[in-house]
Task: structure prediction
Amino acid sequence: MRGKAMNEKNQNRLQNRHSEHLLGTGTPMCAGCGGLAAIKEIYDVIGEKSVFINAAGCMTLLANYPFTPFRGSWLYTAMACAPAGAQGVRDALDILLAKGRLAAAEDLETVVLTGDGSANGIGLSATSGAMDRCLDFLYICYDNEGYGNTGQQASAATPLGARTATSRGPLGYPGRKKDLFAIWAAHRPTYVATVSPSHPLDLVRKLETAKNLKGPRLVLAFAPCPTGWGFDPKEMIEVGKLAVQTGIWPLKEYREGKVTHTIVPRPRLPVDEYLRRQGRFAHLFQPQRNEDVLQKIHSSVDAYWDAIES
Ligand code: SF4
Result:
């Protein structure tokens, strides 16, 4: 009981600290969490006139009753159904607006918040349906390329060669990362963008664009994960920068059928500079280089940018 009281006291102390961001302090996220850094920047733009519909994942732990770092509303759902929850919230808001019980100025942005496990796999069907219905919602995915909340098992967003809790062999994860940007764009929604917490100006401009549009909108945030990827938490921003500079994480947006790259890395740094920073790829370099897997990773990045620049 004394321990519980002490924990609550410590949590209160952390949560009462001044924050330069709208999202409050004292969350139980890991130190150096790239997903949390992205959400902080994103929430500053979205603002407190919002309802977050949060599918199970790392960020579910943000709002830990009776504590919450959000200034506005937050709703928890299972992994598969956050867009369905968003439909219910949006419908309720629209009914209140139609009945004059909610002023237009008090309307709330409906925001789905999920990790890559839900966005690419378990919740993809509900997302596709919501886009088919042209639901007016903003979908934020923090992509840490695995099921981080349960110990970094492989997800459909895990990249080739990465070691995870479910791909521990000498070759790492044998599959390819699913292209969520392309899957969304194929639905012809209002807006799709990739962002990284290491590039805050690019992130803020895209969030402002997304906020001022209606309909289905995805912001896919790169989420360097020190716990699951095996790097020092203080290097989180550096890992994010390297992902962009090596071309591993293209910064781009889709609107009205057109894809635009907002930052083109020139010159592109060698992909190994990004891979070598992370314990999840260490087996590709030691005890000797795994040229076969490394070549496949290099070629897929080269092929992507050759197609863009040709
Ligand atoms: S496991 Fe990774 S994504 Fe999850 S809270 Fe920790 S650092 Fe963030």
The chain has a mean pLDDT of 94. The chain has one domain: 24-309. The first strand starts at residue 50 and ends at 55. The CA atoms of residues 170 and 287 lie 11 Å apart.
